[in-house]
Automatic annotation (TrEMBL):
UniProt keyword annotation of Disulfide bond present: yes
InterPro entries, sorted: TNFR/NGFR_Cys_rich_reg, TNR19/27/EDAR
Alphabetical list of SUPFAM superfamilies matching this protein: TNF receptor-like
The keyword Repeat is annotated on this UniProt entry: yes
Protein name: TNFR-Cys domain-containing protein
Pfam families: TNFR_c6
Chain ranges of the TNFR-Cys domain: 76-116
Membrane-crossing residue ranges in chain numbering: 12-33
GO biological process, one term: positive regulation of canonical NF-kappaB signal transduction
Length: 138
């Protein structure tokens, strides 16, 4: 006499669905959503779109890339910062010549960094051989 379990196949199926269902859902969902690169945001239509590119002297008003952003606009660099390239990169801090103990030849502007000159009077370059205690410039 053979015992046949009609519900066994269904119980195995439902156990499988209950245990693996959430992972299956995540797998399907993650593969349906496009993966945007570092200079793209996910548009509301489901496609990856290039982030706005700003001209020299500007930066995006918010982060953009890897699927996020998209609502950013180009704004001028803040005081003490600059950008020289057309890009999605933020503005960089200006070099402070006085902290390097050097003369400032040109001030920082929104589109260019400061230009530092020679050492301040009485200082020697940090690459000079040290014979006596001296103050260096960098």
């Amino acid at each position: 006499m053979e015992i046949i379990c009609l519900n066994c196949d269904l119980s195995i199926f439902f156990t499988f669905i209950l245990l693996l269902g959430p992972f299956l859902f995540l797998f399907i969902t993650l593969n349906l959503i496009p993966r945007c690169d570092q200079t793209e945001y996910l548009h509301h239509n489901g496609t990856c779109v290039a982030c706005p590119v700003c001209k020299p002297g500007e930066q995006l008003s918010g982060d953009c890339g890897f699927g996020y952003g998209g609502d950013g606009v180009c704004i001028p660099c803040e005081a003490g910062t600059f950008s020289t390239d057309t890009s999605v990169d933020p503005c960089r801090r200006c070099t402070q010549c006085n902290l390097l103990n050097r003369l400032a030849l040109a001030a920082c502007s929104p589109t260019s960094d400061s230009v530092c000159g020679h050492c301040l009077p009485g200082l020697v370059p940090s690459t000079a051989p040290e014979k006596t205690p001296v103050a260096f410039c960098y």
